[in-house]
Design goal:
- It is a single chain.
- The chain is of the alpha/beta class and 126 residues long.
- It is built from five helices and seven strands.
- The longest helix has 14 residues.
- It is globular and about 35 Å long.
- The model has no long low-confidence stretch (mean pLDDT 93).
Length: 126
């Protein structure tokens, strides 16, 4: 992904970049987060690199897209459309996209064990 920026192990993307991945029929995981959300930053963030590592070992890229910095205020109409396309509000939302189509969307998976189980489930579906 050309415009993606890496934060730790996680590639930060915007809605246009994700749309391009979907048009190219790529398989990937996207983690939809909100900057104001403590479930995203305090609870999930310390455990997320383990999830990313498991997915990357299975050959699946993991992206992250922040859609809000302020509660209920989307960064753009494209961020709102992305959120709605992947299941609506509820953060963090971890979505498996297979061959350009949303396959599974899970909300509020935050601790290390739950993320490990989610990675195993997503890998099994590939």
């Amino acid at each position: 992904m050309l415009g993606a920026q890496k934060k730790d192990m996680i590639l930060q993307v915007n809605p246009a970049e994700l749309q391009e991945c979907m048009k190219q029929k790529e398989t990937f995981v996207v983690n939809i987060v909100a900057g104001w959300c403590p479930d995203c930053s305090v609870r999930q963030e310390p455990n997320f690199p383990g999830f990313v590592q498991k997915m990357e070992e299975a050959g699946v890229v993991v992206y992250q897209c922040n859609v809000q910095d302020e509660r209920l205020v989307f960064l753009s109409p494209e961020h709102e459309a992305l959120t709605n396309a992947f299941g609506g509000h509820g953060y963090p939302r971890t979505v498996l996209v297979q061959e350009g189509k949303m396959a599974v969307s899970k909300v509020e998976v935050m601790d290390a064990l739950a993320l490990s189980m989610l990675a195993a489930d997503y890998i099994k579906r590939l």
